[in-house]
Amino acid sequence: MPTVGIKRDELFDALGRKYTEEEFDKLCFEFGVELDEVTSEKQQVAKEQGKEKAKGLSDDVIYKIDIPANRYDLLCLEGLVHSLRVFLKDITAPQFKLKEPENGVRQKLIVKPSTQQVRPVAVCAVLRNITITQQVYDSFIDLQDKLHQNIGRRRTLVSIGTHDLDTIQGPFVYDAQVPSDIKFVALNQTEEFTAPQLMELYKESHLKSYLPIIQDKEKYPIIYDSNGVVLSMPPIINGDHSKIKLSTKNIFIEITATDEKKANVTLDTIVSLFSYHCAEQFLIEPVDVEQVDGTVITTPKLPYRVEKVTAEYLNKKIGIEVTADVVADILTKMCLDSEVSDVQKGEITVTIPPTRSDILHTCDIVEDVAIAYGYDNIVRTLPRSATIGAQQLSMKLSERLRKEMAGSGFTEALTFSLCSYDDCGSKMGISEQVVQQTAVKISNPKTVEFQIVRTALVPGLLKTIASNRNMPLPLKLFEVQEVVVKDATKETGARNERHLSAVHYNKTPGFEVIHGLVDRLMQILEIKWSSKKPCPEGKYYYLEKTEDPSYFPGRCANIVACGKVIGKLGAIHPKVLSNFDLTCPVAAVEINLEHFY
Questions:
Q1: Is 380 helix (H, G, I), strand (E, B) or coil?
Q2: Where are the beta strands (DSSP E) in 115-239?
Q3: What are phi and psi of 167, to 5 degrees?
Q4: How far is the first Cα of the chain from the last one, in angstroms, to the nearest whole number?
Q5: What is the average pLDDT value for the chain, to the nearest integer?
């Protein structure tokens, strides 16, 4: 949870009223934030570095306020003050709008193809006729730092550059160049450095943690204007030429990112909060961004979204009884302009501004109603029904089978739930097309070892044997865990299945050992053997010959129980053994336990 440090006097001046510490603590609680600490710059330094270091520092009282991690709009004085004043009904929520430049020509950023391998996303905006005081400057820089650490994940996802527009000339170019070709005067430096020299210079500075983001790239991202003046080398450092000063009147904001959604949220947050200081408040000048394919997008987007909820739904979720009019008033206090759109149904139309990126679902609206209504005002009631906790059937069955497996001489293994395409595909003799159809893919895998969610347990057990093949034979392993397969009928597009798998690794396959294990498991599950195919109605099972590329031809069978194929057992194919670097034969079984509870 991020903490914002704000000078008390500046905060109270902006709010237009003074509070005692207890009163402000109560206001924070009612609004959904927390006054964490009351301190001063002098006290902080004395506490961290000793009294000698604190001499001569300010005694101004600082309020440290804990902010919810997803409330980016509260990470600076401007955002917090506006939200509190709307909550107190001193003002109405501002309406953020785009305004075209007076000359009718927008600033433009051209994105070059070379950036797509480094940081592919870029968005921009302009704030015109802004008044910057020292307090505004400090708040502006602090907000950027908090956004870098929070939504930007220490600049890995998002990095922000702000520039004095009057010192540079558009159109601007976002490119990626060979490090040795990049040369400019970096922020607060007096001489030019090449990119490699800057990386060396900042090794022992506060920027050192950001250097690895691009250090190993063949090309570094760079933004420059039509005159070749470098604005920034994201995500490391801005250029000194275009740095923001107290005399700056027009600000050009550029954001580079690996995540388009986060880039837009970051841009919307910055321009919305600091447009308050513009001569025409809450008006932002758009910028055209020319994409690699030639298309042009306009940023910032400043999206307003509408959601509809009912008072009945909100009351039921929170445990209160209020009318739709009261709910609409409560939501408006939380900067969510609301009005009753259907009196009979109690339906409320909620307008979500660009600053409230935390509102993703109606449940987030429920939370805001609960906060503004006051948790202390919710009447305590007993639950309508009394329930007793119990173990889920799936877990109960799993524990029972684990004990039986251990009693049968098998050792439990716990393998990774993520694996590579090869593990569940080519190594098992299964085509890539089949794996693509059934496996859930990881969108941004960190390594080739974790590309998909496993669809079976046997590959993980074979890898475990391969890592322990020097152990005394036989190796008898089992696992009872979940696999994931695609399912278009599910809301998430996939479903979890609990499987049981066992393998036997020895100088002989040990098919009879696995067969006997299956018979024992069926006995535990109270399913009888039947020699008739199909078996009579009731709890019976039998084995049915089948072919599978993972198993030796003629030595593979389906396990059919209660009329359904619940699993498979057999001797693993020699090619599969070779793929996993195994030298002895393996017999294996895998059963889907979903049919038993």
A1: coil
A2: 121-127, 158-164, 172-177, 183-184, 193-194, 220-224, 230-233, 237-238
A3: -100, 0
A4: 41
A5: 91
